[in-house]
Recover the amino acids of this structure.
């Protein structure tokens, strides 16, 4: 105890052979020999702050309790005490009771009892009975005599060797010798004291301080029972006993966090200190999802707030063990095999290190930091040994811990890079804008637009076609990465992302957040080709905005341009059409222009909107069948809906199903004979207690199996087809007769024939140009169709769209090709619709 | 609407609000994501088969010509 030795006065060294005397000292012996002793205590009374800490703020007051409690804990460490009771009384006094061996009561050579020496001589406690107290809490340096010195009164009651002894002190002075007052079969020490109000300005014990420290002591000493009670106006009591010791401590600390592995990792081991004694090390570790590190270090039950050699040992060995395991099991590939730093490994770590050392050294009297150099090696050695074993035996836990560290490492590296790259000097200076950016003249963000255009050629057209006062153009090119043979991934290169950030004028704060106030454009318009590449680039960009600048989406700053996919010309009429649906509508519109349609028996003639709705329905019909074509043969589905009118009731009746199968076969044979031969089977569908029909079309050649069953009949596709067909059927029996105004009617045939007739009429004299990319449009066309604020259509991106994009992105990115392909195959239609 | 989990670590995302790290759980994970953008680790995996995919063939050729020019 290097720090505390400087203020140590004369000590009485007691030998362990101090056997208790049968006859206690008598009152008359108290005289000259005590005077010298009391001089020591007088020094404590004169300068209490030096010995026990601040007497005004409560530090010193509670320090008294710890001096007494530590003696009891020492008894526990020596294996003799299982219970400690601390009671704060209403009169300001406090009692500590333990069931240890009891303070020795034997006579000391100077004619006083050993107990009295302990109570009146500074520093006597720690040195006392050194062999049995292999490890001492080390106390707070001064011993229980200091408590005695600053107490108005102190009562000592010792149970030892069948007898009960008592002695009382006032302001440190014994009021008589230690006297045997009775007999008992118990052992232990009971010590009551009342801090002297003439010394302490604050004399009230604080529940929280007592409670927290006693709980801590209880955690650090597995199995020790500690009872705390506070009497007075608001009595309170608390009992602690933790069989799990520091394991339970860690669990408690992690109570409000989410651990990433259930079991607290626990290590208890010891190494020789010298021939006679050992250093024991107890460590409990658990990682949680938290980002902070919480490691508490104790030496002989005393908290070392600045850590010390045990903490250093823990950190070094932890870094080494985790890295060794991670490298050995190839878990660092994501970091390109760079080792994990200690800081990354300790992210989310909650740990207690408790060292029991026979002779610890501290940097200061307050024991804030352990400096015993041997501890570092011992802790390292034990962790190296035990943690590696733990990891080998618990690979799942080890993997989770390492995965978390890897994320931490990536995050830290990313943060560093991001700051470096984005905050580089001058990067946000407008004069330093990327060369590819064609900026606008307007400086007010609210009136400025940025077109992010895919590809250089389209960028060129956009630059020429734009309104340079308010429209800026940034051409971006998605990179194509050859990952494997025949697999080409699309990505935004680092330069593209950097360019984008700079062009947007965004700064990054310490948290990596983009400062939306600095955004240079309040219209960010993504303009990409209507192909796979374009949709991928758009997905990437939207994902970037959604993740890194959700505020821009929330404020409605992000848009998607709607360049046309087609240019159509019919006669003098020229029109740009956004997509296939628009083209289909255009064809229907021009095909139905001036036409009146009627069935022979139908009462109501169809023309204009009503006719277009009918044909739109038929377009939708085909689209639904196309959407199902991977799973089902369209002709079979069509026949099931139109000819057989199969419903869930039909499935329950074999006779009706047989008739339905025949009807379907006949319908297909008549309309699509190329699908023959058809092999149809009826079988049980036990899950729905119905029948189901399986049709193998082109049997034996390129067979496709279509199942008409309960699931199909309750699907949304079937419901839509059914509704459409009911509408068609309600028009009356075909043939349809079409007539131009004031002209003779022309008999056309059934609904499909009518559809074809309208199509043919609509396409007659129609020239269609399909734009494969923006680059195929000249600047004027691009301006007219997509960029002119007066006529263009922009889709404003909402946070929900972006969220779907993010999900799509998560699905499309990365290496997990298999689930992605399955998903796309199953949801071919869905993915198309997600293509915002 | 239930939020999807943090894209980086999969724990619960922060609330969708102006001063939150949404759609991440924390500023840390947002930074990790930004880092991945900045070092170009995000990519969309291409389809494995290229037979009938005209566009993919085009991009293949584009990639080839790009390789040739650099």
């Amino acid at each position: 105890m290097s720090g505390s030795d400087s203020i140590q006065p004369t000590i009485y060294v007691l030998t362990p052979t101090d056997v208790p005397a049968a006859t206690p000292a008598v009152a008359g012996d108290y005289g000259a020999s005590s005077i010298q002793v009391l001089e020591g205590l007088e020094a404590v009374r004169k300068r209490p702050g030096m010995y026990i800490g601040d007497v005004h703020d409560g530090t010193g007051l509670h320090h008294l309790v710890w001096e007494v409690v530590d003696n009891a804990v020492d008894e526990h460490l020596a294996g003799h005490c299982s219970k400690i009771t601390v009671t704060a009384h209403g009169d300001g006094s406090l009692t500590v009771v333990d069931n240890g061996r009891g303070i020795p009561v034997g006579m000391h050579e100077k004619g006083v009892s050993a107990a009295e020496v302990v109570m009146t001589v500074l520093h006597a406690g720690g040195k006392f009975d050194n062999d049995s107290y292999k490890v001492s809490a080390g106390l707070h340096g001064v011993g229980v005599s200091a408590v005695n010195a600053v107490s108005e009164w102190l009562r000592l009651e010792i149970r030892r060797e069948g007898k009960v002894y008592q002695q009382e002190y006032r302001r440190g002075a014994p009021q008589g010798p230690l006297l045997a007052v009775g007999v008992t079969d118990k052992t232990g020490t009971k010590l009551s004291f009342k801090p002297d109000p003439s010394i302490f300005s604050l004399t009230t014990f604080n529940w929280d301080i007592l409670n927290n420290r006693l709980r801590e002591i209880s955690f650090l000493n597995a199995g020790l029972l500690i009872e705390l009670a506070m009497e007075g106006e608001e009595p309170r009591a608390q009992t602690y006993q933790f069989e799990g010791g520091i394991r339970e401590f860690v669990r408690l600390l992690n109570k409000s966090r989410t651990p990433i592995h259930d079991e607290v990792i626990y290590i208890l081991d010891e190494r020789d200190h010298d021939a006679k004694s050992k250093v024991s090390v107890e460590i409990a570790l658990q990682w949680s999802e938290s980002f902070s590190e919480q490691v508490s270090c104790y030496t002989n039950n005393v908290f070392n707030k600045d850590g010390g050699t045990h903490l250093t040992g823990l950190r070094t060995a932890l870094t080494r063990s985790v890295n060794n395991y991670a490298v050995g099991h190839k878990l660092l590939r994501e970091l390109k095999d760079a080792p994990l730093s200690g800081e990354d490994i300790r992210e989310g770590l909650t740990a207690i290190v408790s060292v029991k050392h026979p002779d610890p050294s501290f940097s200061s009297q307050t024991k804030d930091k352990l400096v015993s150099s041997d501890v570092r090696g011992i802790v390292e050695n034990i962790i190296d040994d035990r943690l590696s074993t733990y990891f080998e035996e618990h690979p799942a836990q080890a993997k989770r811990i390492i995965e978390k560290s890897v994320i931490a490492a990536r995050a830290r590296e990313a943060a560093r890079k991001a700051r470096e790259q984005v905050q580089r000097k001058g990067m946000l200076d407008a004069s330093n804008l990327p060369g590819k950016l064609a900026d606008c003249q307007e400086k007010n963000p609210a009136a400025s637009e940025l077109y992010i255009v895919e590809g250089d050629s389209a960028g060129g057209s956009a630059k020429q076609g734009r309104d340079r006062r308010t429209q800026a153009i940034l051409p971006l090119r998605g990179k194509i990465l050859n990952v494997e043979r025949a697999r080409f991934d699309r990505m935004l290169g680092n330069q593209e992302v950097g360019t984008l950030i700079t062009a947007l004028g965004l700064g990054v704060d310490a948290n990596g957040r983009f400062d939306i106030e600095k955004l240079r454009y309040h219209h960010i318009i993504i303009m990409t080709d209507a192909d796979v590449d374009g949709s991928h680039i758009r997905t990437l960009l939207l994902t970037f905005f959604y993740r890194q600048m959700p505020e821009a989406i929330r404020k409605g700053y992000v848009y998607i341009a709607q360049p046309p996919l087609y240019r159509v010309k019919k006669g003098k009429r020229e029109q740009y059409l956004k997509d296939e649906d628009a083209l289909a509508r255009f064809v229907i519109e021009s095909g139905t222009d001036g036409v009146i349609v009627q069935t022979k028996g139908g009462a109501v003639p169809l023309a204009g909107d009503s006719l277009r709705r009918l044909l739109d329905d038929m377009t939708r019909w085909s689209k639904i069948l196309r959407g199902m074509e991977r799973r089902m043969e369209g002709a079979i589905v069509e026949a099931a809906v139109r000819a057989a009118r199969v419903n869930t009731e039909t499935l329950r009746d074999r006779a009706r199903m047989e008739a339905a199968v025949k009807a379907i076969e006949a319908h297909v044979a008549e309309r699509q004979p190329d699908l023959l031969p058809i092999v149809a089977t009826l079988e049980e569908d036990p899950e729905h207690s119905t029948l189901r029909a399986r049709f193998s079309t082109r049997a034996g050649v390129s067979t496709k199996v279509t199942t008409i069953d309960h699931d199909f009949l309750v699907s949304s596709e079937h419901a839509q087809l059914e509704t459409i067909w009911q509408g068609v059927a309600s028009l009356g029996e075909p043939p349809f007769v079409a007539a131009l105004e004031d002209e003779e009617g022309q008999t056309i045939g059934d609904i499909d024939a009518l559809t074809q007739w309208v199509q043919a009429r609509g396409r007659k004299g129609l020239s269609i140009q399909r734009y494969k990319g923006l680059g195929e449009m000249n600047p004027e066309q691009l301006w007219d169709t997509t960029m002119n604020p007066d006529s263009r259509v922009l889709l404003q991106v909402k946070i929900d769209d972006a969220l779907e994009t993010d999900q799509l992105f998560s699905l499309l990115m990365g290496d997990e090709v298999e689930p992605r392909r399955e998903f796309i195959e199953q949801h071919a239609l869905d993915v198309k619709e997600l293509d915002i | 609407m239930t939020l999807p989990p943090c894209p980086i670590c999969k724990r619960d995302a922060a609330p969708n609000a102006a001063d939150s790290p949404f759609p991440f759980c924390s500023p840390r994970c947002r930074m990790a994501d930004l880092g991945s953008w900045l070092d170009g680790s995000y990519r969309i995996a291409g389809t494995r088969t290229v037979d009938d995919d005209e566009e993919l063939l085009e991009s293949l050729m584009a990639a080839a010509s790009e390789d040739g020019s650099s």
